[in-house]
Structure formats: C-alpha cells, structure tokens
Request: fold
Amino acid sequence: MKLPLSRTRAKLVHRTKEFIFDNGGFQSMLDLRTKHQLEDSMGFRGQLDEHRRFQIEMLMDRGLKPHHSFLELGCGPLTAAIPLIQYLDHGRYVGVDIRSTVLDMGWTEIGKAKLSAKNPRLICSTSFGAEEIGDQSFDFVYSFSVLYHLSDEILVNYFRFVSKRLGSGGVCIANVNTDTQSDRWLEFPFLQKSIETYETMARAHALQTKKIGTLADLGFRHIGAMEARNPILEFRRV
Reply:
C-alpha cells in the first residue's frame, strides 16, 4: 500500500510529464504524423485539407442535401467522409473500402471529430459491400480517386453494382484519369482510360455518362497537382 507521500510524489511526477508534453510541442508532432499517415493512405501528401474542402463543396454544388442517403465506394481514411458525416443527417452516410487498415484510421477520425452519434456505417468489403448493403438504394454514390485503380473486370462489377443501388433520380459521381500514363500506386494499379471507355461500360448497365469538368474547373486549388486534370463524371440511370 502506497503512503500518501508516495501518491503525492507520483501525482507531481505525472503533472510534470504532462507539462513537458503540452509545452514541448509533442502533441503537434503526433498530430502531424497522423495527418501524414492519412495523406499517404489517400495518396496525396500535403493535400488533406484541400481535398476535404473541395470534395464537400463540390458535392453540395452538385445538389447534395442533409437528408440524402450517401454511399461512398472507396472511402479510404474518410478524407471526404468527415465533413460529409458532419453535414448529412443521422445515419445517412455509408462508406465502403477494401482496406481494413484505413477503415481503422477512419474510425479514429470519427471519434476525434465527435461524430459517433451520427451513426455512420463503415464496411470492409471486396465486393463494394454487396452483401452488407443488400437492396438499399442511395441518392448519391461517390468514388473519389478510385475508378482509375479498377481493372476492366472490376469496373464492370462496379457499374453493375451502382446501377442497382441508385435510387430514383440518384447520381453517381467519380473522377477518372485520362491524362497520366498507367502505373502502380501501393498495391493497386493506376490506370489511364478514356472517357469513352467509361461511357461504354456504364451504358451496358443502363447508366448515362456526363462530364462535369476537371477538378481544376470545379475549384480545386492545387492546380499544379496531377489530379487537378482529372475529369469528374456523373452517371445516372437511363
């Protein structure tokens, strides 16, 4: 059993450690490290804040309202999802990703942003959440920096899935790479495809394609960045 003096000494030591931590900039360093981990998992070091600002504003400009149901395919570490969950009504956000590690980071971000009460749903799936989502339909289906990682075979499954999940008047919004030569990013391919390729695949699943502009056209501020040239496409049920 500790004597009162021992407890007092331990408390003083703890307070001293807290003072050193708070005033030594250690929390700032940890926050920056976490931010870099989020950026690396989404593929754009130094651009987290701008990607969040751009995506939520772009989606609102495309008609997103708080009552809309929203499905994000390839949600990653919730780059767009944090402001989306803040904006949308309770239970209206569903995010799907193939990587459990980034979803773990996403849950941490939800907690830090105090958004658990909004009841967002995150799903780890290799089939776009087909089993977990069932027959649920959505007003918005969204994929940012995702389609250019999908092979033709997976893209066919993507458009088949989207066609079934879009509600009446619903829209799917996604950016694509038509400009940068094919390569790899982490464990994923990085593929250059024409808009016509996406149009053909979408049409086979009763989806009509419309180009609404590049990221730069729509207000993305890192205009020198590679992704600023990406076209953003809308897909709607015919």
In short: Helices lie at 4-23, 26-42, 48-61, 81-87, 100-112, 130-133, 152-165, 195-203. The radius of gyration is 21 Å. Residues 4-23 form the longest helix (20 residues). Residues 145 and 175 are 6 Å apart (CA to CA).
